[in-house]
Structures are given as structure tokens and as C-alpha cells.
Amino acid sequence: MRRKGWRASDIPDQSGRTAVVTGANSGIGFVTARELARRGARVVLACRDETRGRAAEELMRSQVPGAEVELALLDLADLASVRAFAADLKDERIDVLVNNAGVMALPQRQTVDGFEMQFGTNHLGHFALTGLLLPRLRAAGAGARVVTVSSGMHVLGTVDPRDVQMEHRYRRWLAYGRSKSANLLFVHELARRLAAAGSPLVAVAAHPGYAATNLQAAGPRMEQRAARERLVELLNRFLAQSAEAGALPSLYAATAPDVRPDDFFGPRLQLWRGAPVRSVRAGWTRDDRASAGLWRLSERLTGVTYDWE
């Protein structure tokens, strides 16, 4: 019987490696963490909510007996939490960081530090986390990866340096698209800077296509729009692929041997579903000037400067 592309069973042995997965309590983050653990990795489940994180940890252990997983609390919408998380991790190398957690199309909100919620959580939180963990990632040497989960919806628009917080006219889907373009600009600039530093650490991006998770329903639930929430649930049920399938591009980016710096992986079929392949992306996400400008802005906003020594 002919195979239909790369599967989780193709993940190389991860024994002796340590992975950190943000948003690992549900959806593609849970599947990503579980499958890395299944292949022998020690996995840190970086979750915002302790109750949900503990439940995910227990479920993961029941699905993968002997899994080496541990919960650590991380709220990407609070830079103090990001710093505390990085400081509390054991002083050891990290082989894989999967910047997976995110929010989607929320009503206008701000992070603890006063940033627009989607830009602050999806981009700035992960920018700060990656910078704080960079020495341990670089210490892992060849084979280490930083995987940042973007979205096919990045095509909705790129970051506007004149209004990164969308204070003048907030549109939730445009804000989401811009935050996902920021993810890709971040990967592009990180890959450039790693190459200049002579580091073998690989920065790469992925997107899940249309995967059924609780991400889509968060906005309607916050606004108590039951009809819209029900519609999202129906679309997820009949049109979306599973979280297991949606996690494959992230897992491929984290483990496959042919991954190159600044790659972008997504589902094979129309950015929607199927086995992971290199994905198309908007040209602006490879703009050196834009990525460098976003980097400088992110350093200023987060107060995190990357250590290249």
C-alpha cells in the first residue's frame, strides 16, 4: 500500500534530547509534545493554566507510558512570566524549542505589559522567550532547532511599523494576520543572525493548515457569541483536519533531517490539509529590511537582547 507522505511514525529517535513546547496543554501543541515524548525526548510542557497543564500532563503519560514530560508555567502575555519561566528551567541544553502557543482573532485586548494581545502573545512573547533561552539552544550544537508556528493567514497583511499595536483602527483578523507575518519575519531575521554568528542552530517556521483546535472558538467565547461559537465548532467538525494532522508540519520542522534555515512547512493540499511540505509564503516575510526593523522594535519593547557570544 502506497504511503501518503510523512507521518509522526517517521520522527527520528529523540532519545537524550530536550524539547520545550509552548501551549502544550491542547491542540497541535499537545500532539507535538506527545509525539516528541513518544520518540524519547524529554519534553517541557510550557502552559499558561496550571489546571489544564496538569490534566494534559496526566493524559500524555496515559497515552505514552514512560513519557518524560514535566509542566512549567508560562504566560506569553506577561513578560515577567516569560523571564521567570526561562530562569526556572534547569541549567541544561535545550535541543528543540517549539513556539506554538497563540491566540486568534480576539476582540481588542492588551497584554499585561500593554501590547496589543495578538502581537504581544504570538510574536513578542516568543521573541523574548527565544532570546532568553538562546544560550542553551546554541549549547546543544548541531541538530538544535527553533520552530515557530505561523499561519497561512499571514497573507492578510504584514506588520505596520507606524501602528504595530493597531491603536488607530483595530480589526481582529488583520491583527492576527500581522502577528503571523511577524512570526515569519522573526524566523527570517533569526536565521540570518545565526548564520552571521556561525551557529548551527536552525530557525524554521511551520503552519498547521486548517486544524480543529479550540483556538478558533476563543474569540466568540470571550464575547459570549454562542451562535458564532457553534458555527466555528461545525466548521471544525466538517472541514478541518485533526490536531494530529495539524501538528505534522511542526514535528517535521523540529525533527526531519532535510530542514534548512528559514524554511516554512505546511500541509501539502492548498495550505489546508495533508502531509507536510515546504509551503508558499508572502514575499514580505523575507524582506531583510523589514525583518531587521521588527527585530530592533521587538528588542526595545521586550527589553530582551540576544547574546551572540
TrEMBL record:
Q: Specify one Pfam family.
A: adh_short
Q: Name residues in a coiled coil.
A: none
Gene3D superfamilies linked: NAD(P)-binding Rossmann-like Domain (3.40.50.720)
Cite the entry's keywords alphabetically: Oxidoreductase
Q: Does the keyword Transcription apply?
A: no
Q: Which InterPro entries match?
A: NAD(P)-bd_dom_sf (IPR036291), SDR_fam (IPR002347)
Q: What family does the Swiss-Prot or TrEMBL record give for this protein?
A: Belongs to the short-chain dehydrogenases/reductases (SDR) family.
Tell me the protein's name. Oxidoreductase
